[in-house]
Design goal:
There is one protein chain. Helices cover 36% and strands 15% of the residues. Strand 12 and strand 13 form a beta hairpin. The chain is α+β, with helices and mostly antiparallel strands. The chain is globular. The strands form four sheets. A five-stranded antiparallel sheet has the order 7-8-9-6-10, with helices on one face. It contains twelve helices and 14 strands. 29% of the residues are buried.
């Protein structure tokens, strides 16, 4: 409002009656509480013009879709297990050999081999920067369950003694899992915890995963570019893996090499990807570090550990006057940082003095109207399950009539 960040105005006025918590001014937050959904409203005067959303995606189905699309567009798919890697004299990869004897040569190799990092890590010898001292969770167990009603429009993350549990509703099932630190909880205990907290019957056996938080020292070396897990991994608390894959692809397009493989282009790619990983790393660490929990060794560790200087600066700036600065193309915007900082109990001791430039007698009723208007606008939204039924033909539960399909 008038060029002043909203959370600064809220901090100035929060002591007054009728202001309420800051989440009451977020249409997406209010809608999530009501299990409602709607797209952004085209009228910028509507509170619903600020609606933002993302998709819950079944990653396996999405991968199959992308494969079919790529092959339809002319991509040739060669399936086989790589058993050897050939190099040119300059160290670049010349070809890979498959277990059936075939040799696949190329100019540019994109390593999508997962945690093994077969080309970038093993063949090119690029080291790994381990971030597990800040992000100690290194195990996950996933299990799907039957779909439940109502179909919630959000992911739920619930803390437990050595990590957290996820619940992600999809059209046809619900995804569940626990993420935990093996240093503080063994696999059998984690699986028992997960199964005891499910709200519907499992539809498959639990699947165990292991990982190490961190990133390769470079994402591009020679003529090899790592995309996805082969370049690094940050635990799924903020579901950032697909975003980082897309960032890797789009930045490769922007800096696509010729056969000369300019070091300048490679170094810029590595710099930008490193910045992306570090900014997301700091945001995830914040969830753990800014906690009052002290009931277990895990939470005592993350609460008291030293954190990266880049995160310390952000916390200190916010703690002083609620200021937040984003750098370059960080994924998480100011409202996300505000939500976690305030939600985890970091209250600024003051606010930006520029907020005092606005007349309180005019500002206070305007803020109250904003809160009321947000609640009233969200009350007009349909339930999330009804939107899915109309949009994608989701079968409604027994006794509920599905709305007409779209034209």
């Amino acid at each position: 409002m008038e060029g002043v960040n909203f959370h600064q105005l809220w901090a100035r006025l929060k002591r007054h009656d009728g202001i309420g918590p800051i989440g009451d001014y977020s249409p997406t937050t209010v809608a999530a509480r009501a299990n409602a959904f709607g797209p952004p409203h085209p009228d910028p005067r509507s509170p619903l013009s600020g609606m933002a959303y993302a998709y819950h995606i079944d990653a396996t189905l999405y991968a199959r879709f992308l494969r079919r699309r790529a092959e339809a567009d002319g991509v040739a798919r060669i399936e086989g297990r790589i058993v050897a890697v050939e190099h040119h004299d300059n160290g670049h990869v010349a070809a890979v050999r498959l277990d059936d004897g075939r040799r696949v040569a190329g100019d540019l190799f994109i390593d999508c081999s997962g945690f093994r990092s077969l080309l970038l890590g093993e063949a090119m010898g690029v080291g790994f920067e381990d971030w597990s001292h800040w992000l100690p969770c290194d195990r996950a167990i996933a299990v799907p369950t039957e779909r439940t009603e109502p179909v919630l429009p959000y992911t739920r993350a619930t803390a437990h003694t050595a990590g957290w549990q996820w619940r992600i509703p999809l059209q046809h099932r619900t995804g569940n899992g626990v993420v935990y630190a093996s240093r503080y909880m063994d696999d059998d205990a984690a699986e028992a915890l997960l199964l005891s907290r499910l709200d519907a019957a499992p539809t498959a056996a639990p699947r165990r995963l292991s990982f190490t938080a961190g990133r390769r020292d470079a994402m591009w070396a020679g003529n090899v570019v790592a995309i996805g897990l082969s370049g690094g991994f940050l635990e799924p608390l903020e579901s950032t893996s697909i975003h980082l894959i897309q960032q890797g692809i789009s930045k490769l397009f922007a800096l696509f090499p010729d056969r000369g493989f300019s070091a300048v282009e490679r170094d810029e790619y590595n710099r930008q990807m490193a910045d992306n990983y570090r900014s997301i790393r700091d945001f995830i660490i914040l969830h753990y570090h800014a906690t009052a929990r002290d009931e277990s060794p895990f939470w005592n560790h993350v609460r008291t550990m030293d954190v990266p200087d880049s995160l310390t600066r952000k916390i200190d700036l916010f703690r002083q006057k609620g200021r937040i600065f984003r750098y370059e193309d960080e994924l998480f915007a100011m409202p996300s940082w505000v939500a976690v900082l305030l939600g985890q109990g970091i209250e600024p001791v003051g606010y930006d003095p520029i907020a005092d430039a606005l007349d309180e007698e005019r500002l206070l009723p305007a803020i109250r109207r904003m809160r009321s208007a947000t609640a009233a606008a969200v009350a007009t939204l349909p339930q999330h399950g009804a939107v899915l039924a109309r949009t994608v033909g989701l079968i409604p539960p027994a006794g509920v009539k599905a709305p007409c399909p779209p034209d």
